[in-house]
Amino acid sequence: MAQQIDSEIIDQVSILAKLELTETERQQAMEDMQKMLDYIDQLNELDTSQTEPMPHIFPIQNVFRDDEAVNGDDREAMLKNAPKQKDGQYQVPKTIE
Amino acid sequence: MELIQFTAAELSEKIRRKEISVLEAVKASLDQIRQMEPEIHSFVTVTEEYAYKRAQKVEKGIRDGQYRGPLAGVPTAVKDNICTAGIPTTCSSKMLEGFVPPYSAEAVRCLERAGAIIIGKTNMDEFAMGSTTETSAFGITRNPWDRERVPGGSSGGSCAAVAAGEAFFALGSDTGGSIRQPSSWCGVTGMKPTYGTVSRNGLIAYGSSLDQIGPIAKNVKDCALVLEAVASWDPMDSTSMKRQDLRFSENLTGDVRGFRVGIPKEYVGEGVEPDVRKAVERAAALLEAAGAAVEQCSLKNTRYAIPTYYIIASAEASSNLSRFDGVKYGYRASEYEGLHEMYKRSRSQGFGTEVKRRIMLGSFVLSSGYYDAYYLKALRAKAVIKEEFDQAFSKYDVILGPAAPTAATRIGESLKDPIQMYLGDIFTVSVNLAGLPALTLPAGLTEDGLPVGVQIIGGCFQEGKIFQAACSLEQALEPWHMAFEKEGHVHGKTV
Question: How far apart are CA B144 and CA B66, in angstroms?
Fold first, then answer.
């Protein structure tokens, strides 16, 4: 039987996902995730005991390069998209007292 | 014949011969956009001013010999999850409303080097999550063949733009079928290349191990030419592949003598609409008549592709979309106390329902205690699915099937039941899981006059074989027209 989604799991997942759900959204999320897990449950019919997990389809290796800057100073262009900025930096609410 | 009826290859040829100016081509596209947009809404942003400026530069570049390729001077549309420097890129999400990228995606730079002219950014399902373009935060796109139906998704705007004659070709992205399914539903030709063929640098990530940018065009030849232009090895994408075999247009011989074609019985079985099945059967018969050996085969693990895909794609999405925190770019909530509340409110208000649904599922399957049972299980299932395809391609040059079980659905129909919508991806998602290339081309009409595409799947790096088979099929089928070319939806042939 598929994993049962209770309010404790939903609250934990909301923390991980950094989402603040309204009560309606929370109920809906519980229902949606339960349906999805019930559906996903059929994967257990597939025997994968002899199969290694495959994160990537090609046998690729990490790519290294010398740590040399190739881009210019894009500070202004980057900051243009910031919702809030101050003194040429991103501005966030005060986090350290 | 009107200017906008030309294919990209035809148009660039006429521009080269000075029969048409680049400015005329751009103006024709923008006129068509003006006429069609109120009804279709393919675009999130139309870049009129930019396009006119660029037209002058490209015109001069063509005359000076800077641009010699088959896309020089051709107006194109780019899906709105592909970054364009100085042009808003929103992923059709409130989260990125007003975001103007400081750089262009490598695929866009490739198009610019080829002399193509971007006339706008196309609508899509929010962050490419959806199969109908209805989850866009900026309104739905309508299918140019039937305005009461969806264009498919998530690259619905790109496919509708080509079908409506607003662009000569377009770029889309395909994570689980997002180029191939809307191509099928809009009667255009679209391709997802082998993973690693087109750089993902500048493509706003959804499921990084599955995402690929690909061409959407009026025919197979244009599709090959566009892929040739955008395929590149890019050091900025660590999964980019160094390929030597990128002259795809050389495979457009149409010769399939001796080709072995497999049709998986799972792809034409239960749940597939009769009109769709008929289109596949007719395509098979045409390939056979052209000298290919066609036989039924089996991909018995097909049914596991959807659960596997939704675990992996959601997991990667939950990680990729964690960058949207209201700090560096994008939406920030107006009221909050402290940093964490700012993160949470900004994300909760900025993301739509489907995006939040997938972030939640992804966070769950990656969380401690569930990781092995869900995420690792899916990675194992993916290996099984890939192995099954490898075996099939030891016997067959290409696999033939539908792109989707149905033709375009009615607006509002799919969103009622998410799982029902996910099931529609059954014939496309396994291709992404296995990293394979696949192309969809129009192959007939339903009784209701809606286009039906067939999908040709190849082994990794076997785009050449796909183009050979697709070219043969296109030649054997009756001439196809874009939706805008005739009223009353009577073109093509009913299957």
Answer: 36
Query: How does pLDDT run across B74-88, given as a tens digit for each residue?
Result: 999 999 999 999 999
Q: Cβ contact (<8 Å) for A19 and B359?
A: yes
Give the DSSP H or E segment for B455. Answer: strand B451-458
d(CA B325, CA B363): 16
| CATH code of the domain covering residue B85 | 3.90.1300.10
DSSP B110: H
Encoded tokens for B323: 């960058």
User: From the list B195, B304, B373, which residue is nearest A57 (CB)?
Assistant: B195
CA dist B188 to A87, B154, B195, B446, Å? 50, 15, 22, 15
Q: How distant is the Cα of B420 from the closest Cα of chain A, in angstroms?
A: 11
Beta carbons of B361 and B355 less than 8 angstroms apart: no
What pLDDT digit, counting tens, does each position of B12-44 carry? 999 999 999 999 999 999 999 999 999 999 999
Instruction: Please list every residue in chain A whose beta carbon sits closer than 8 Å to the beta carbon of residue B381.
Output: 43, 46, 48
A86, part of any domain: no
Question: What is the C-alpha to C-alpha distance for residues B435 and B192, in angstroms, rounded to an integer?
Answer: 9
- Containing structural domain, residue A22: 7-45
For residue B73, what are the domain limits?
3-252
